[in-house]
Amino acid sequence: MKKEKSELIGSYDGPVNNRENKSFEGSKHSAGKECKENSGLKKRVIIKDDGRYLIYYSF
Amino acid sequence: MLQLRYDPIKNQLVAIATKRQDRTFHPPKNFCPLCPTKNGKMETEIPASDYDIVVFENKFPSFDKNPEKVNNKKINAGRGFKYELRQSRGICEVICYTSKHDLYLEDLPLEKINNLINVWRDRYLTLGKKEFVKYVLIFENKGEEIGVTLSHPHGQVYAFSFIPPVLLEELKSAKEFFKKKKQCLHCQIIERELKEGSRIITGNNDFVAFVPFYARWPYEVHIYPLRHLQSLCELEKAEIMSLSKIIKELVNKYNKLFNFRMPYVMVIHQKPTDNKNYDFYHFHFEFYPPYRTKNKLKYMAGCELGAGTFLNDTLPEEKAAELRSIILEK
After folding, report:
1. Domain hosting residue A42, numbered range
2. Does pLDDT of B272 surpass 50?
3. Is there a contact between B227 and A32 if contact means CB atoms under 8 Å apart?
4. Interface test with A, best of B227, B249, B271 (most A CBs within 10 A)
5. pTM (predicted TM-score)
């Protein structure tokens, strides 16, 4: 399904790379459970004087 | 005062947030509350000399993180018909995309947009894990025409204690369609748009952008992942890059359309975070720019507000062709 969709885009919207096809049927049931944690994110949390939090994300 | 009042006629909740009347309205030109704090100058929201991306709790929230208990007995004492108050529980955050005051989402290098998407994912996961949070809405209001009073590039996150009505309606349609056809409604729409082509703006390996057949705003565009996914946090690394590319391309096309920065409302529709099964749902972005021509705005008026039916003065296929034909410099 994914490949078909990409090909359809390619037919009128410029080139599309032939990347690995991901099956729609295969991904459908697992997708909901596939949430990936952003474990690599660097976060620093501070609490402001009025009690609100502020998070610095560094990359 | 922060309250949720139940409208028994429309079967909807209304958030009363009186403190928001005091929110910053066009600050002085030499002071931006979302810029880093300059040495020796008044402290902004961000007490640092620079930052990559910052998230903080909105000073003027629409919901209360720690609301007091509501007393429906008190408001209904001695009354016949009973009104209903609910706890206005929720979290409202601001996301500053960059420390640079004039660098908008579409101006950022792709790597920086990737970083922003990763922050969106993190906020969705972090807030969505909270027991009371049923829905995490990530959005951006851009431009004075939309009512934005702080021009520094930023978006917002609302963690709702309920699923808001627009999403409820979408989920209901998708669920009913899936029940009947054993297929995803959104996937079917994507498939039809791809085959037909007349409303497509652009696409890449992983995403497609089109003016929907049923567009309510003249230049309304929806961006969908080609894979059937329910939220941003299921994206693979390559898909995040594809998403950055398509967002950047779309917004730059908007800007080139009338040769000014197109204002818009951008919302990300993802599955709710109430731990129920939403395998039938398909996450996507929706953009609503308010212009119908270079110098005319489309307003929500009698028919839209009073009857809930949008009047679109334009043909989606024509508007899509306009946006599609815009060539951007590499």
Report:
1. 2-58
2. yes
3. no
4. B227
5. 0.91
